[in-house]
Amino acid sequence: MKKPKKILAVNFGGIGDEILFLPALASLKKEYPEAKITLALEPRSKSVKDLTNLVDNVLCVDIKGKHKYLALLKFVLKARMGRYDMVFSSGANSLIPLLLFLTGITYRYGYESGFLSKVLLTKAVKLKKNQYASLMYHELVTPVTDHKTDIPQIDAGDIEKEPNSVLIHPGVSKMSVVKNMVKTWKPEIWAELIQKVLATGKKVYLIGGPDDKECIEKIMQIIGTPDNFENLYGTTKNIMDLARLTKRAEVLICSDSAPMHIGVGVGTKTLALFGPTDEKKLIPNNEKYIAIKNKAECRPCLWDKRQTTCDELKCLKIDLDEVVKLIQA
Q: What percent of the chain has pLDDT over 70?
């Protein structure tokens, strides 16, 4: 097989999914440093290109829009015109192999998903969901490279840590809220945590995206304007601004959301709240990245056992004093 000049990677999902996919692209780039990589993704996640130099181009495919089949047809046509040498897809749908076959790309890699994957893929990789998602995605590229990249890496520049600083991002994506995937505390609990952290002498910064406006406003109503606190909501213009703020902080506290993956990517100590979701799949097994969780027998349940969260939310009942201890450790 000749070394590829153009590689197409297909990974549909939110910005967090795209960050988790970066280690696979990193290993491809190490194996084929001269190759140009195009990443096909959903429009909502195209900003991932601002976080990495691994992606040369993005190809937006609106698979959740009203005209998703037309979008997929356009994707196939663009992929054919792109004359790529290889394609890798993270999709587990049984029709993904057919989609890749229609692109006309010679070397096609994806997950085992039935008969079509065995017939139409160059190599079908066994899907192992019960592991950190970056490692799961990385297995897609193992047929072509021995390089191993375990954790996403985001180049936010050379930024010094601010001593005793804690960055708090309380929000989750709007899509999670719409789908009733409750993965974070109410604003009142976040406000109480901020007050407890401030009592330790730490400098606290509060941050959030457009989806978090209501949550941030409620927190501010509760805590007012205490010393050693700064509300940075609305000051970030793009995702790289958030990455730089995260890298500057000594500690990031957030929910299971995209900012958590950014925290991991820039190497900041990250405490992430996990209620109904499975921390083993979403955060590295590393003492620097800590899952805030309890021992509720019903967790984790989201996605594997149910598609929405329950009304009781026992999994989100956490001793905030224990969280403060983790910050100080």
A: 95
209, amino acid identity: G
Q: What CATH topology corresponds to 6-141?
A: Rossmann fold (3.40.50)
Looking at the chain, the domain(s) classified CATH 3.40.50.2000 span: 6-141, 165-328
Rounded average pLDDT over 162-166 = 97
Phi, psi torsion values for 57, nearest 5 degrees: -145, 155
Two structure tokens written together for 295: 């021992």
User: What is the number of alpha carbons within 13 Å of residue 16 lying toward its C-beta?
Assistant: 18
Q: Is the pLDDT of residue 176 over 90?
A: no
How is residue 84 written in tokens? 């790529």
Pick the CATH number of 165-328 from 3.90.850.10, 3.40.630.30, 3.40.50.2000, 3.30.479.30: 3.40.50.2000
Q: Is 328 exposed, middle or buried (0-12, 13-18, 19+ CB in 10 A)?
A: exposed
Nearby residues of 66 by Cβ (< 8 Å), 6 or more positions away: none
Contacts within 8 Å (CB) and 24+ apart, 36-39: 36/5, 36/6, 36/7, 37/7, 37/8, 37/9, 38/6, 38/7, 38/8, 38/9, 38/82, 38/84, 39/9, 39/10, 39/11
Main-chain phi, psi angles of 301, to 5 degrees: -130, -25
What would the pLDDT profile of 11-41 be if each residue is shown by its tens digit? 999 999 999 999 999 999 999 999 999 999 9
Give the model confidence (pLDDT) of 298-324 as tens digits.
Answer: 888 866 766 677 777 888 999 999 999
> Does residue 124 contact residue 118 with C-beta atoms inside 8 Å?
yes
Q: Is the pLDDT of residue 178 over 60?
A: no
